[in-house]
Amino acid sequence: MSDKPITVLLADDHMVVRTGYRRLLEQSGHIEVVAEAENGEVACRLYQEHIPDVVVMDLSMPGIGGLEAARRILSREPSACILIFSLHDNVLLAERALQAGILGYITKASSPEVLIQAVVTVAQHRKFLGPDIAQSVALRNMDEEDSSLSNLSPREMEIFLLVVEGKSGAEIASTLHLTNKTVSNYLHQVKQKLNVHTSAELVHVAIQNGLIMA
Predict the structure, then answer these.
(1) Chain centroid to CA 117
(2) What is the pTM of this model?
(3) CATH code of the domain in which 70 resides
(4) Are residues 155 and 113 in the same domain?
C-alpha cells in the first residue's frame, strides 16, 4: 500500500458519530479524515474544496439526503469514490445507490474492520457491499417475486423516501431544487408504478419493504 494516506470526507449529521468514526478510521494508520460535513449541501461544497479519495456518506441527513448529495457530487465529478454508511439495511436502497454510481454500501452495524476494508476498496475505484447487504442482494436475485419499488428510477426513489419521511411537496421541491410541478409529476409517477393513490398508502408500501418502522 502507498505511504500516502487515503483522504476521506465524512458526512453524517451527528457530531458524536462523526467523531467516533473519525477516530476509528484514523487509527487504521493509513486513512486521514480531511473534512467533516453535517448535511448533504455541506458535503457537496467540501468535496469541491478537498477532492478527497473517498466520501463516507450517511443517507439520512437534514436537507438533501445522502443519495441526492452523492448524485450532485457525481454529476460534477463522475470518478468520485463514494461509500454509503447507513442505518438502513434495505437491499433496495443499496441497489439504488449502486445504480446512481456510488461504489460502496455498508450498514452502521458493520464491524470496524468492514468499514476500513470498504474505504480501502472504494478508494481503489472498486465496488464494495457489506456482508449483510451482499447476502440480501443475493437472496433477492434468487427470488422471482420482485418488489414494485424496483421499478422506480433513482429520482423517483428519492422523492418516495422523502414523502414517507413526512416531507410535503413544497419541502421536497426546496430540498431537491425542483419546481412544485416537477415534484408533483414525479409523485404521480411513483403512485402509478406502486399502484397506490395516497401518501398514507406510500407509507404502507415503505413499511412492507422494511424502509421504515411501523
Answers:
(1) 18
(2) 0.71
(3) 3.40.50.2300
(4) no
